[in-house]
Specification:
The protein is of the alpha/beta class. It contains seven helices and five strands, in the order E-H-E-H-H-E-H-E-H-H-E-H. The chain has helices spanning 15-25, 62-74, 76-82, 113-116, 129-137, 149-167, 181-199, and strands spanning 2-9, 29-33, 100-105, 121-126, 173-176. It has a five-stranded parallel beta sheet, with helices on both faces. The chain is globular, with a radius of gyration of 17 Å. The relative contact order is 0.24. It binds adenosine-5'-triphosphate and Nicotinamide riboside (NNR). The site of Nicotinamide riboside (NNR) has 10 residues, from loops.
């Protein structure tokens, strides 16, 4: 069986941290990071607000990301091999040989319709505004945030896409990013294991 798990949510919600723990624990598990599909910097438009529009869907090559997901679906073993992932089961559970899991991690996962129905489970990590801003201020992205980006672009775009997701009633499991890394890991691992049981 093949399962696709979405680890979505706001910037600095803790998606990458959680994902890195999960891939170590799950059998035959591959990962796709949405950030790897950013268009080249010179193709990121400057908005009316004067900021480069890093936090809009158009800045990502979502077709390329979709094709990567489809490549995994078509042949998870080959995908794992070509991405340097050890495909031997790292779990002692019986049957894990037939279980293939793909984790897709990113901040705008559920705003791209063509992929929406492919997820077996969609998680959504959030933290309050102040905590998000605090965590973001200590991060350094490939392109550093210019002054004012968080309040002028990042947060308004989060609110816009979040509203759309809520209005479209996208079925997500909300996760409280203020919980400890261990607690989140235990909660999601258990929930994924239940999802595997229920889907099989
Ligand atoms: N549960 C947690 N509690 C406290 N801090 C956390 C937790 N999870 C992650 N962090 C910290 O928050 C910051 C952001 O974490 P992480 O990179 O996992 O977020 P992200 O959602 O992947 O962000 P982005 O999408 O912007 O790359 C990091 O400094 C990380 O160490
Ligand atoms: N990965 C990048 O190239 C990049 C460059 C500039 C800004 N970002 C930020 O990454 C977050 C998503 O993980 C978004 O909030 C972007 O602002 C990423």
């Amino acid at each position: 069986m093949k399962y696709i798990i979405g680890i979505g949510g706001m910037t600095n919600g803790g998606k990458t941290t959680l994902t890195n723990r999960l891939i170590k624990a799950l059998p035959n598990c591959c990962v796709i990071h949405q950030d790897d599909f950013y268009k080249p910097q010179d193709q990121i438009e400057v908005g009316e607000d004067g900021f480069k529009q890093w936090d809009v869907l158009e800045s990502l090559d979502m077709e390329a990301m979709q094709n990567t997901v489809l490549a995994w679906l078509n042949n998870p073993m080959k995908f794992a091999r070509t991405h340097g992932i050890n495909i031997l089961p790292n779990s002692q559970e019986s049957g894990s040989n037939d279980t293939h899991i793909l984790i897709v991690e990113g901040f705008l996962l559920y705003s791209y319709k063509p992929l929406l129905d492919l997820y077996n489970r969609r998680y959504f990590l959030t933290v309050p505004y102040e905590e998000c801003k605090r965590r973001r201020s200590s991060r350094s992205y490939k392109v550093p945030d210019p002054p004012g980006l968080f309040d002028g672009h990042v947060w308004p775009m989060y609110q816009k896409y979040r509203k759309e997701m809520d209005n479209n009633n996208v079925d997500v499991v909300h996760l409280d990013g203020l919980k400890s890394r261990d607690e989140l890991y235990r909660q999601v691992l258990e929930d994924i294991q239940n999802t595997l049981l229920n889907c099989s």
